[in-house]
Write a structure and sequence with these properties.
Elements lengths: L6 E4 L8 E4 L4 E6 L62 H4 L13 E4 L4 E4 L2 E4 L6 E2 L4 E3 L3 E16 L2 E12 L8 H15 L7 E9 L7 E9 L9 E10 L5 E9 L4 H12 L2 E2 L1
Antiparallel strand pairs: 1-2, 2-3, 4-5, 5-6, 6-15, 7-9, 8-9, 9-10, 10-14, 11-12, 12-13, 13-14
Length: about 290
């Protein structure tokens, strides 16, 4: 790309036909679906400069344990279909994880990082502090097909071994919203993300969304909408029957949509609910 004029070029991080903005010197965080998209108002340079199409596999940052089915069945970047996911047995921490930061570009090229020492997750210019113990971090970014291109999460078990060794847990995370879940109107995007989470991730079981609401909620000058709802379910062997779901969708200056989210069973300890709420309130832009 040396010497190329600024413009939209095929994204070297993506095989799906997306385009990335080249500022004349280096690649930036701005991506688009068309080479004729308007010039981004602000586009931060991608660092480090090397771009790769590959995304690392799943690794625990700590002890091996049964999967979280949580209220969310976590989905691997490596392309595991939606539904219950078994954590892979790690062969050892990756060099980046050992250094305390795990980079992971999303399918659309938005860079994500998790600083394990501070528990701060960042996607684009958005950052959020994930809750402390007993919430456990997943160091690597994950992907939820057709919903989140990438996300970082922390989970705290509420019910152990509710069905065949599976754990049901509270979860808090920061995500880059994928194109398929993005709507023209930001409030509609927040509702769509909330509904898709409720319809897809609760161990593949039928759910009912009740008391749903959406309200304007800007963050550091960036427009945002807060979606809240009660998600009801009935799963054999599980004491929980309702999760309180919260999704805050914010549009960044480059058009990227990020979502700070939590799903906490109503019978979870009050301390876990308070930690989740505090984590969502920590989101910052810039």
């Amino acid at each position: 790309m040396s010497g190329a004029r600024p413009g939209w070029y095929p994204d070297p991080r993506d095989d799906q036909g997306c385009f990335r903005w080249w500022n004349g010197t280096e690649w930036t965080t701005a991506v688009a679906e068309s080479a004729h998209a308007p010039q981004p108002a602000r586009a931060r340079a991608v660092r480090p400069p090397g771009l790769s199409r590959s995304i690392g596999g799943m690794r625990w940052s700590g002890r091996i344990r049964a999967p979280w089915t949580l209220g969310f069945a976590l989905v691997a970047v490596a392309g595991v279909v939606l539904g219950l996911v078994i954590w892979h047995d790690p062969s050892g921490p990756s060099p980046s994880a050992a250094a305390g930061v795990t980079p992971g570009p999303s399918a659309s090229g938005v860079r994500g990082e998790l600083d394990r020492s501070s528990r701060e997750a960042s996607i684009g210019e958005a950052s959020m502090t994930l809750p402390d113990d007993p919430y456990e971090l997943r160091a690597d970014p994950m992907r939820a097909k057709d919903l989140f291109d990438s996300y970082f999460a922390a989970g705290a078990t509420v019910h152990e071994d509710y069905r065949g060794g599976r754990d049901w847990a509270a979860i808090v995370g920061l995500a880059h919203v994928g194109q398929r879940a993005t709507r023209v109107e930001l409030d509609a995007t927040a509702v769509t993300v909330g509904q898709q989470v409720a319809a897809t991730f609760f161990d593949g079981q039928p759910t009912t969304v009740e008391s749903a609401s959406v309200a304007e909620h800007s963050v550091d000058g960036c427009p945002g909408y807060l979606f809240t709802a009660s998600v009801r379910y009935r799963i054999a062997g599980l004491a929980s029957s309702t999760d309180e779901l919260t999704v805050l969708v914010v549009r960044l200056d480059d058009g990227t949509r990020v979502a700070a989210f939590s799903s906490v069973p109503t019978d979870a300890p009050a301390a876990l609910r308070a930690q989740a709420a505090s984590s969502l309130e920590s989101i910052r832009i810039g």
